[in-house]
Structures are given as structure tokens and as C-alpha cells.
Amino acid sequence: MRMSEAILLGSTLLKPVSGVFMTDDGTGGCAYGMARKAGWGSQCELETMLVAELPCGCGKHDEMVMGGCRHMFDLATWPVTVSFAIVHLFNQHVCDGTWTIEQLADWVREQEDRLEGLEQQAQQPEAAEPVSEYSAV
Q1: Angle between helices 101-123 and 3-10 (to 10 degrees)
Q2: Which of 50, 25, 37, 18 is nearest to 115 (CA)?
Q3: What is the tens place of the pLDDT at every residue in 104-134?
Q4: Separation between Cα atoms, residue 9 and residue 5, nearest integer Å
Q5: Partners of 64 in beta bridges
């Protein structure tokens, strides 16, 4: 199961709660808690993949919700990974209503598709340079 699918399925099982993986009573949690509740495994290459910018428009020197509190991040020096983006998008934007869980899942799906494309490119043999009949051998 892809993480994007698991987030959507888990969102039917848990209510969104910013800053916690899963509540003590198991009725609420973050995007990762939702995915886990739906049966998604643990970390994968997707989470450590870098993204050029946050899709929400938050940028350099903005105060952002990460985990249960607000932090200032200098995105010029802080690597923005898919995992970082998921945590930020859920805790700040899904929980404040500016994004839906479906928008978050759609963005995660785009990153999954991008990762699959990169993996397919890496598996293809490099094309050999054409050799001219006039090349020195």
C-alpha cells in the first residue's frame, strides 16, 4: 500500500490531531499515525527524498508548525524532505483547514510517482555514445 492511500484510509479511522503520532486513546493522530493505523509500513526512500520547495507557499524565514510547536526554519539552509513537508503540511495546513487531507494525499502521491520515475530511470542502462566511423580507436 502506498503512503498516500494509507493516509486517506487512516483518515477515516483517526481524527486529525496536530503534533502527536497517535493519541493515547487511539482515536486521533497525525498523517503518519493515520497511515500506520491503516497498515502502512515504516520509513521508506520517499521520506528522505528532497523537494525543491514546500507546496503550500511557506518559505524562507516563515514560522512553521512542526510537531507540536512552532519553529522558525531557514529553508535556504534546512533540507526540505518529503517527510519534513508531510509533517508541516499536516500539522499546520490540514489541522488549520487551509488544506484538506485529500490535498495532502494528492501531494504525497505526486512525490511517490516522482520517486518511481527516478527509480525507473536509475534502472535503465545508459545509452552508449554513437561511435563515428572516423573516431580514433
Answers
A1: 160
A2: 50
A3: 999 999 999 988 888 888 887 765 555 555 5
A4: 6
A5: 71
Give, in order, the Cα–Cα distances in Å from 122 to each of 10, 84, 109, 115, 126: 32, 25, 20, 11, 9
Question: Strand pairing partners for 97?
Answer: none
CA distance linking residue 129 with residue 126, whole number of Å: 9
Nearest alpha-carbon partner for 64 in 98, 109, 34, 110: 98
3-state class of 115 per DSSP?
Answer: helix
pTM for this model (two decimals): 0.80
The cell for 31 is 498523517
Angle CA(106)–CA(73)–CA(94) in degrees, nearest 5?
30
DSSP H helices, the chain, are: 3-10, 31-37, 45-48, 82-88, 101-123
Among residues 82, 77, 78, which one has the least CA distance to residue 48? 82
User: In this structure, are strands 15-16 and 63-66 parallel, antiparallel, or unpaired?
Assistant: unpaired
Kindly report which listed range (34-38, 39-43, 82-86, 124-128) carries the lowest average pLDDT score.
Answer: 124-128
